[in-house]
Task: structure prediction
Amino acid sequence: MKIIIAGDGKVGNMLTNQLSAEGHDITLVDSNPEVLEASIESYDVMTVQGNCASMEVLNQAGIQETDLLIAATSADEVNLLCCMTAHGMRPGIHTIARIRNPEYSNQIYKMRDTFALSLAVNPEKQAAVEIERLLKFPGFLHREAFVGGRVEIAEIRLEASNKLCNVSLNELDSIVKCRVLVCAVLRNGNVVTPDGNFVLKAGDRVFVTAPTNNLAILLNNIGTITKKVKNVMICGGSKIGFYLAQRLQKSGMSVKIIEQKKERCIQLASLLPQVTVIQGDASSQALLYSEDIEEMDALVTLTGLDEMNMIIAMYGKKCGVSQIITKVGRRRNGNLLDELELGSVVCPKELCCNNIVRYVRAMQNQTGAAVTVHTIADGQVEAMEFRVNEKTIHCNEPLKALKIRKNVLVASIIHGGQIEIPNGDSCFTQGDSVVVVTSSDKVLYQLNDIFE
Amino acid sequence: MNYKMMGRFIAQILGIEVIFMIPALCISIYCRESAAIRGFSWSMVMIALLALGLYALCRKGKKRFYAREGMVCVGLSWIVMSLMGALPFYISREIPKYIDCFFEIVSGFTTTGSSILPEVESLSKGILYWRSFSHWLGGMGILVFLLAISSLKGSKGGYTMHLLRAESPGPNVGKLVPKMKQTAEILYVLYILLTVLNILFLLIGRMPLFDAVCTALGTAGTGGFGIKNDSIASYSPYLQNVCTVFMLLFGVNFSCYYLILIKQFKTVWKDEELRMYLGMVFGSIVLITINIYGMYDSLGETVRHAAFQVASIVTTTGFATTDFDLWPSFSKAILLCLMVIGASAGSTGGGFKCGRALLLFKNMRRNLKKALYPRRVEVVCNNGQMMEEGVLSNINTYLSAYVIIIIVSFLLISLDGFSTTTNFSAVLACFNNIGPGLEAVGPTCNFSGYSVLSKLVLIFDMLAGRLEIFPILMLLSKSTWKKG
Result:
């Protein structure tokens, strides 16, 4: 498929990496020649320098043959104008724009047709939703939802005190006392697709598939003490901070935001009257102390600097905050972050990319495309949800009789209202949803791709 | 430096070379030329073994590949490819000395067309075909061919850009479409189409098939190896005109053809380099026609010879229909200027390139103005687009390297005692990939009189000229091979 990506920033780059690997023809547009030069030397793409909202530049980028335009520049207005211009030049085109300003979020939805948007993505809002979900279930580093939130893949880090340490997966069920499936383990930065004899060790990051209502049982039985989160401290009153505070406040938590800029504080205070807004430097330990960091159930670091976020998170850990969520802008040092024990790490750009990649795959393969796509384990594993339709082969055949591709695992089958964690005798029929986990490079566009 | 990956590339290129020797072998078998058959078959076996060995040695390795690797890889591949490509000449004993074989095939691959052979008609058909074919392959570039046929998997395909930049001529090499493989395919499809068209036009003029194929291959690569001793002179005026037109066509930037194909006629029409190229050709033809008027029987013949020689020189092909060494000085001077400027960037022609000369001129004009008004801010534009300062300074560097190589080569080959004009034109002819020079290396003469040292210098010049200096110069630099 021919795709134009306008804006070669972090999201643009992440998308280029993913989409060019999937074999699409990508043209990058940006006004900065240096970033374009860097991209053309790392990916098999073409670049056009200029303003992506101008007809001339879009023409140069070959808009007339393009199927999809993704506008991810730093300015919302430019993104919108870019999509409108592109749509005007080529009415059949699909457009995706990144719109981050909260003030626009309502009108974007109502005026989608006027703006000619096929999809509007808001990384900050998505990140806020993700963080909220994590806060609702302390104990998991990540949670990815499938089938409307009924099945999840949750990530647990095994501390040395965890009951699961030195337990082989065959014995797992007897300890957790509910049906769960370990679909991947991240050990020393490498992904392992485990079998029954695999023994878990301290320091592993384990990815577990389970029905959502089993998650509490799971946590309980492995000895992770979970306390309902009531008091949350948010460092940094950025857009994510705003979205998050808004949501948490609605669900009845007490929220405290620390923000350095006075004007922003005033703005936040007027937008969120029930939230405590503190003006001050969140990296100052004295300030955190005076704001009762030790009493907090959760700490979310959302400042604009990754380094600052990490340092605050480490300090929070030391102060005994049980749940810590750190936002990072780039995942390049994935391994390093892992060793720092920063709690859950959330990368808004990554969430946004996943969303767009899913849209692209669905476009390419209208029927049978993945309904949900999540990347887990630092981007090394993909978890996808598919619907079983009339084109799906091997329906009603037990899994053990099928030849499934290496490094692909069927993680759960949802049959009607029943959630099944599959074993060799399980099978799926038309109308079911299937969650598949893969760590291979080959992209699964539809369910049939999992078979050899 | 990622030697293993470079090794893999070179092995693949040798593999392609073996495959491309098959037609030459078939021609030799068809014509029952035992020496040539022996030459090709032994060469193919040897090259294939070498390629397999190299590939086995470099099978596994890291995928890291940067600008430095790209340059060195292109430089080395061309040298290895030439060393191996010379084998058929040597094994078949049709050219006795290996250095001469090497000179001949480098001249072929770099689309120069300078020969060390006093006469070519006694060569066997297979060898003649291989000479002409080397032009065709070298014209568009063998690595570009490799990029077109190999499937590149994974996201990290960006390194191919380094290869394209190192092998394709021009100051500002870019892709036509997002995918490198498709870009390379488009280039080769256009190239093949134009070549086939050329063959057809020559066949219509009743040229024998073998002659037509060889002439077209030589024209397409803007090479200039003929299969007759008098080059194109003995063919009919119609055939000469066909050659003139096609030489000029192959001297145009290939992205112009792509733009025509996707119906962007306006962009092509407004292309500044194309305008300069056509203007220069037309102006030179008019001036030379006036200058040599009276030397030939009719005005038509005068124009035909003038046009052919101008096309042949400006595109750096090097075919000849008449001995321009006998022309008046002014005409020879025009040809010498055309030799230096050369064809368009992104074409199969050599030389300094019109696009580069144009930017150099614009840059000079700007800097002169700046001397008058020091605070004046002005940018250099090409086709309405601002050129980066980096591109401009690169062109200045290129010019310096260009001049230095000419001076050093000129000094070195002057040891052989030929006249100054001969030496100077020999260096220009080789470095700009033209072929014939003036006086003792003129269109009716050849390079066999030079010593081994001079031949090596000229071989270096030809390679440096075809690959636009840096990839070859890079191989001589100590810092290229230093670790870390």
Q: What stands out?
A: The radius of gyration of chain A is 23 Å. Chain A has a mean pLDDT of 85.
